[in-house]
# Entry
Amino acid sequence: MTDPVPRLPALLEAVLSVGSDLELRATLRRIVEGAAELTGARYAALGMVGPGHEGLTEIGTAELPESGRRSFVGRTDDSLGVRIRVHDEVFGNLSLAEKSGGPFTDLDEQLLRVLAAQAGIAIANARLYETARQRERWIEGAAAVTTALLTGEAAADALTTVADRARILADASAGVILQPTGDGGMEIVTAVTIDDPGDIVGTTIAPGSPVLRQLLGGEPVFVDDSATDPRMTTHVRTRFGPSMMLPLQAGGRLIGTLALPRGRGGRPYTSVERLLATQFASQAALALVLADAQHSRERLAVYEDRDRIARDLHDLVVQRLFATGMMLESTQRRSLGARGDRESGGSGEDVHEAIGRAVDELQSTVQEVRTAIFALQQPPADAPTTFRGKVLRETAGAAAVLGFQPSTRFTGAVESRIPEAVAGHLLASLRRALAVASRHAGVSRIDVTVDATASLPDGRAGVRLTVHDDGTTGDGGAGTTFMWQSPL
# Structure
């Protein structure tokens, strides 16, 4: 038997090498390379046993010959193999083949067993480090989601933020949010994927599904293969493999479900990933509830502010009307005295002027009331972002004053053809036209038309706004048409 002392430095070097890196794949690579160098083997490979080993299946120095691929532990003339254990778990088999200079010896086997024992410790440390890194990433992701949700995102954007961040953290093919339906089922309302989401959004899980009963009960569902699991019933299941379905629940309230499927043939989720994703879902659900509560407080603040505006408006209107009444009363007394003045050559111009000021004051008051009502009628939710929505918001505000809803019609591709600057001028003109129309006597109908296919007198393409009402103007005319146009 060969004296082990000359090979002791090589063993110590190999032992130190396998524990010099905390990254798991790098540690496994060092184990394989150290085993080959220590024993003089031409081929060395480490094959993992069972699923869930962080996506690792085999690491080798080169392609093992068929003799080295046999599942064995021990030594033959051309091959040598030992098991690597991490605590009480068999992590994998370290296999060697084709030793240079002759067959493997008992000393080779002993040295390899010592290296395998140290490798188990190094792998355990690398796993702990990887778990800590994963936990840190998930915690940072949950904090980022909470920050994003509490900065005022709309409900749909908030769900997308949760789905997208979870997909990245879980290394999943898709991040999907499902919400309960009125009939007791669940529907996919948000889907973020690394490729075309196709028809994922709108997919439903029928009431009574075993998966659904578990989710509605607040329990997570873990699936090894979505395509073959009989519990999965949706038509999109064939696109995916391993999956996690995690309830978004906070304070006893089920907001929905976060699903994180991987592609067909993808690596299964480890127990650590399942735990971290479940904790993320709980944190995200709490953030969604807090964000919804914050939005409710903001809406309440809007209503409180409107109540203040209404009180201020009431005080202003009462004061102005009282002052106007006093002015008219004074005018009345003066008009009675003016009758005697006419006989002595006096003039009633001062009376006419006073009445004119009173009328102007009343018109000013009415205009301020209209302006305040327009402002109070705006919905507390976020302002519409589309051009059509902004036009309809203006007409809905006018309906509060008129008592009826103006008729609105769009011609042409108003969203894509009308630039933002032109849209702003058009909305301002529409606002003025509606205010003027609302002052006409007997108005019972207003027609608003936005035509994005209009041609201007000089032949250029343009947009034309037309506001027609059937009221009576001050000069006795019936019906008024307001027109505004601009080139595109």
The chain has three domains: 5-133, 151-294, 384-488.
